[in-house]
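Case study 2.
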Amino acid sequence: MKQFELTIAKVLESHLGDYMNQEEILDTMEQPKHADQGDLAFPCFKLAKSMRKNPVVIAQELAEDIQSNEFDVKAIGPYLNFYIKEEILAKAILGDVLREKENYGSSTEGENRPVIIEYSSANISKELHFGHIRGIMIGSSLYKITNFLGYKGIAINHLGDYGINFGKIITAFKHWGDREHIEKIGVRGLLELYVKFNQASENDPSYMDEARRWFYKLEEEKDPEALELWKWFKDVSLKEYNRVYGLIGCHFDSFAGEAFYSDQMPAIRQELLDKGLLKKDQGAEVIDLSDEGLPNALVTTSQGTSLYITRDIAAAIYRKNHYDFYRNCYVVGSEQRLHFTQLKAILKKMGYEWWHQCEHVDHGLVMMEDGKISSRDGDNIFLEEVIQTAIDKTLSIIEEKNPNLEEKQEVARQVGLGALAYRELSNSRIKDYVFDWDEAISFEGETGPYLQYSNVRCHSLLDKGNYDESQDIDVSYLSEEASRELLWEMGRFPSVIQSAFEKMEPANLSRYLMGLAKLFNKFYSQVSVLVENQEEKQAKLALVKAVSIVLENGMNLINMEAPKKM
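Prediction:
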């Protein structure tokens, strides 16, 4: 709808140039809540003081003065409401969608500026469990949206491949490990050792002392045995992670994790010292953040080893120097909010003017009905098992409702994964929620399968009606209210994607797609598409084709595939 907003803003500027410029007018314009109030509205409140008139009078005078072949104008109280003429709207929206196809909604606004999306950030030696799905789905979607808008998306999996946990795993392996067993079952064998270590250390603190010694050997002494075990743990874990990431269809440009920055720790510590930011506290080194209203940040332990915050400082500086990012986004759970607030405060204290370009894209937890998922005690629902369950449940529904469907297994995969993706991304990212299988897999209500089935209906109509995209479209046949609602909603698609990027909120796009699908199903139930009049049929099929394009473009951006039959 941007072209209409610009057109109206130019007209208004010609009448209000002494009081508001075009950019200010665009910022003020709104979309009315009710269809009978027009397509766009301009509130006149801001003009009251400068024009020394009641905003109701201003709206009435503007309505009398403005004339256009593209829209009608009506004053409703202090609002100036614009009604775009039906044929103008239909030609513009249909023309854009059908011409741009898979590129509809994209833009070049990003100008190839680098935007880092850090997500998943898996902890080596721990299997991906269901609790990871939220961050993976959000991050993958944001990466796609970022690239779609012309930015240079850089997906980073900041692996948890360093720290005291490796001292724990090495200790556990030295006591109870079996290399052959771990090679056979993969990262789950390492998780077994992690759980066993935590159970043993609760009864015997000496295990924790041993873990600290092994981590010191790894980080400070570069002990050959510690390094060899660390590399092997990492290889075993990444092999498994990449297989699961492949099932979901997410992508990473870099797996540079905490270990990547280990050799930068001395320089970071020295920089903090040179800038007078470090002080001793019971043998450890901390940064005083009291002037920022924050607790002190622990930078090195009393044993001299680094911590998460130290490595994140190094990572942020490296990323700015290496990528010169426009935005550096950390898709990490909201329980880490303090950590990232401290990180930005430290970067600010260090004098880095780009500190505000670092953003914590926090998100809530996903839980099963029995509560939060934990890896410490081995109380896990593994992600791969959840993926397979979604596919199996979907296949059972297909066997019941459409047993003769071709390629049932592939459709079940597409729909099962789509159900998981939509369930994760339809909720505002900041909210915790409880996952329910029946709700997620249902073909009715606001679910992924409902969204996909709406698109299947589009393809069914196009096939039955022998849609010919080469024919000219007579938009006068698209006069029904249901048609106009679809056209207007499709026109909003580019601005919805832009909003999802600006707010780093894929749910904006997910909810938009559900609204579009509902409008299409309303159109499907109210409007006869496959009529005898060929010109009318082709016009309505063109509208259906446009809906399918928008649905498929949007679903791709929220990690959903679009089967043609279900």
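The mean pLDDT is 93.
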